[in-house]
Design a protein that fits this description.
Layout lengths: L4 H17 L11 H6 L3 E3 L5 E4 L27 H33 L25 H14 L1
Antiparallel strand pairs: 1-2
Helix pairs in contact: 1-3
């Protein structure tokens, strides 16, 4: 990785951490479209509990991982809701960053171990490797070849 990409990468990580740690606490607490559509036909009270009617949400069951440490956008054991939500977001961003970075590192290492370059080197102008490989005709290459032929003879 070039030294010029580190500030961009760290800046993106910082923005993601701020969004997950702080801004996520100000997200709407109202149900999204899926939740609203599942509640059609039912009456709900102030705590969003179904009090009557018939709707698909009545068949909902608890998720198998509902008691995991990061369930329901919070950290189990942290009683402050603002801190719990922010900490959950920060942990999620860091885990995602670590997993993604690890996978890219492994892919780069595997490419280097197999004897193939991890990223193709940039071809120099006029080099045979700079030919257009997109499947379209190489008009510029033909013009250069014709110019070389005309100047030689």
């Amino acid at each position: 990785m070039s030294k010029r990409s580190w500030p961009f990468l760290l800046g993106g990580l910082l923005v993601a951490l701020l969004l997950a740690g702080v801004v996520s606490n100000y997200a709407s607490s109202h149900p999204d479209g899926l939740d609203s559509s599942l509640l059609k036909g039912c009456t709900v009270n102030a705590e969003d509990e179904i009090t009557g009617g018939s709707c698909p949400a009545q068949q909902a069951k608890d998720h198998e991982l509902g008691d995991s440490p990061l369930a329901d956008y919070g950290v189990r054991g942290v009683s402050n809701d603002f801190l719990s939500t922010g900490l959950s977001g920060v942990i999620g961003v860091l885990l995602t960053f670590a997993l993604g970075g690890g996978l890219f590192w492994l892919a780069r290492r595997r490419g280097a171990d197999a004897g193939t370059p991890a990223a193709p080197d940039a071809a120099t102008p006029g080099d045979a490797a700079s030919a257009d490989t997109t499947g379209s005709d190489d008009t510029a290459g033909e013009v250069r070849a014709a110019a070389r032929t005309n100047s030689a003879g």
